[in-house]
Design a protein that fits this description.
Number of helices: 3
Largest sheet: 6 strands, antiparallel
CATH topology of the largest domain: Immunoglobulin-like
Distance between the termini: 104 Å
Order of helices and strands: EEEEEEEEEEEEEEEEEEEEEEHHH
Structural class: alpha+beta
Length: 336
C-alpha cells in the first residue's frame, strides 16, 4: 500500500500453499490488526452557561474536528490543569466551571495529547457580563445586478452582554408568534428568516406584508424572567423604487418621495448638471475668443487705410524733409 488511509485499517492475514505430487498443502498465518491513526487537528474551545437552579453553571467544551481516538483532553485555567479526560470514542470533552456574574474568572485553554502530538487551543476568557446599555437596529438592503431591491437584512446590536437572547417585533407583535416559537412552523413561503442566534432578521422580499415598524429587544439568555431592553422602532417600507427607512417619530405629512430619492436618479441628475455647466463654459470661452479676433482684424484694417492719407497731408504742408520722413514711416508700416 503506497498511501495509507483510515479505510485500510482492519485485520490482515496471509496464506501459503504448495503442491507435491498433485497434493496441495495450505498454511495460514494469524490475523494481525492494522490501525491507521489520523493526526489530530488543533482543538477548539467554547463556553456556555445554564441556570439549573439558584446558581449559574458554566460549561467549557473542548473538541477537535479531525483525528483518531483515543486522545487525552485537558482543561487549563491560567496555565494550570483543572481537569483531564481520556476520550476513547470521540474527540470532545466537557468541563464544568464555577461562574460569578461580572467577574473575570481567568483564561482557559484546551490541551490535546496523543502519542505523537501535543496541541493547544486559542485562549478564552471566562467572564459573564450581563446584558445592558443601548440596543440598536441596523438595516441593510440587498440589490440585484440591475439595481432592483431583492431583500432586507436587519441586525440587532447590544452595547454589552456575553450571552444575549434576541427577539424581534413587527408593529409591536413578536416574530415569530409565541405559539410557534419552539416549533418548526413557518409561513409558506416564509416572509422572514432568523440567523446568528436570532440576532439577524432577513426579509427575503420587502412588500406590503413585510412593511412596518421593526424593533429588536435583548436580555440575558440564562434568565427567562429578565427584563427586555428594546431598541427604537425602524420603519421598513418599499413603494415602487422608493425605499423608506426612518425612525417612528418622522412626521406623517412627509411622503417617501420627499424624504429619499433613488441613488441612481440623484447621480444621473448630478452628472447631467455637471456636463451642462461644462458645455456652457466652453461655449462662452469660444465665443469670447472669436469676438476678440474680429475686433483685432477691424483695428488692423482701419489703421492701414488711414495711414496714406495722413502721409499725403503731411507732405503737402511740411515740404521735402517731412515728406522723406513720412515715406520712411510708410515703408515701416507697410512692412509690418
Amino acid at each position: 500500500m503506497g498511501k495509507v488511509t483510515p479505510e485500510h485499517a482492519g485485520y490482515y492475514s496471509c496464506m501459503a500453499w504448495s503442491i507435491v505430487q498433485d497434493t496441495r498443502r495450505f498454511s495460514s498465518s494469524f490475523e494481525v490488526k492494522v490501525t491507521v491513526k489520523v493526526y489530530v487537528s488543533k482543538p477548539r474551545i467554547s463556553f456556555s452557561i445554564s441556570n439549573p437552579g439558584a446558581s449559574l453553571s458554566g460549561n467549557v467544551t473542548c473538541w477537535s474536528t479531525r483525528g483518531s481516538p483515543p486522545v487525552n483532553i485537558s482543561l487549563l485555567l491560567d496555565d494550570k490543569e483543572v481537569g483531564s479526560v481520556t476520550a476513547t470514542e470521540s474527540l470532545a470533552a466537557w468541563f464544568s466551571v464555577a461562574v460569578v456574574l461580572g467577574l473575570d474568572m481567568g483564561t482557559v485553554r484546551c490541551l490535546v495529547n496523543t502519542e505523537v502530538q501535543k496541541l493547544m487551543s486559542e485562549p478564552l476568557t471566562l467572564e459573564v457580563v450581563p446584558v445592558g446599555g443601548a440596543v440598536k437596529v441596523e438595516v441593510e438592503y440587498l440589490y440585484r445586478a440591475d439595481s432592483k431591491l431583492t431583500a432586507a437584512r436587519l441586525s440587532c446590536g447590544v452595547s454589552r452582554g456575553t450571552f444575549p437572547e434576541y427577539s424581534w417585533l413587527l408593529n409591536d407583535s413578536v416574530l415569530p408568534p409565541e405559539t410557534h416559537r419552539d416549533s418548526h412552523i413557518q409561513p409558506d413561503p416564509p416572509h422572514y428568516a432568523l440567523t446568528d442566534h436570532r440576532r439577524i432578521l432577513v426579509l427575503p422580499k420587502v412588500g406590503p406584508e413585510e412593511s412596518g415598524y421593526y424593533r429588536c429587544r435583548a436580555r440575558d439568555s440564562y434568565n427567562d424572567s429578565g427584563h427586555w431592553l428594546e431598541s427604537e422602532a425602524v420603519q421598513v417600507q418599499v413603494t415602487g423604487r422608493i425605499l423608506n427607512c426612518m425612525p417612528e417619530a418622522t412626521s406623517s405629512t412627509e411622503t417617501p418621495s420627499q424624504v429619499f430619492m433613488n441613488t441612481i436618479e440623484i447621480l444621473t441628475i448630478a452628472f447631467c448638471c455637471f456636463h451642462f455647466v461644462t458645455l456652457a463654459v466652453a461655449l462662452g470661452c469660444i465665443y469670447k475668443m472669436f469676438d476678440q479676433n474680429q475686433d483685432h482684424d477691424q483695428v488692423a484694417i482701419i489703421g492701414f487705410d488711414t495711414l496714406p492719407l495722413s502721409a499725403s497731408t503731411s507732405s503737402e504742408q511740411d515740404g521735402p524733409l517731412s515728406r522723406d520722413l513720412v515715406v520712411q514711416n510708410q515703408t515701416v508700416e507697410t512692412t509690418i
